Amino acid sequence: MPERTVNVLLVEDDEVDVMNVERAFRRQNIHHPLYVAHNGLEALNMLRGAAEAEAPLPKDRRVVLLDINMPKMNGLEFLRELRRDDTLKATPVVVLTTSDADQDRLEAYRLNVAGYILKPVAFATFAEVIASLNDYWAICEIP
């Protein structure tokens, strides 16, 4: 089955974590376009194609990898706004975070995330997590 392109928006304020995702994509030979927003506001602008967005995302086959703890607009605030927006509410979101707080996990699932994954400490394990997400995207029908 040929690989269909998925436009991945990584919403992450930590540059080391951004580099780890980029490195994991390379290690796992994942060639999907990776866009980066450093907080929820920037991510919403990119998804909406706002003029102030550095790089608007294509409007089809999008998935969001979302951190919870960020400045300006955190991950849960972003999710609430995303789900209120009729044009964006069906966007698949996978939380990829260090927050193992039960209230964060419960709120994220209440806001219909596709998954909640704790960032592994070891890079090799992190790369395996990214590979598993890529396998998941390959079999899912992403709008």
Mind explaining what this structure looks like?
By secondary structure, the chain is an alpha/beta fold. It has a single domain, classed as Rossmann fold, CATH 3.40.50.2300. Helix content is 41%, strand content 16%. It contains five helices and five strands; from the N terminus they run E-H-E-H-E-H-E-H-E-H. A five-stranded parallel beta sheet has the order 2-1-3-4-5. Helix 4 (102-110) links the parallel strand 4 and strand 5. Helix 1 (15-27) packs across helix 5 (123-139) and helix 2 runs parallel beside helix 3 (75-84).
Number of domains: 1
Q: Could you tell me the radius of gyration in angstroms?
A: 14 Å
CATH architectural grouping:
3-Layer(aba) Sandwich
The CATH class is identified as Alpha Beta
**Pattern of helices and strands:** EHEHEHEHEH
In terms of topology, how is this protein built?
Layout: E1 7-11, H1 15-27, E2 34-37, H2 40-48, E3 62-66, H3 75-84, E4 93-97, H4 102-110, E5 115-118, H5 123-139
Please tag this protein with its features:
143 residues; Rossmann fold; five-stranded parallel beta sheet; 5 helices
Brief description of this entry?
With 143 residues, this protein is of the alpha/beta class. The chain has five helices and five strands, in the order βαβαβαβαβα.
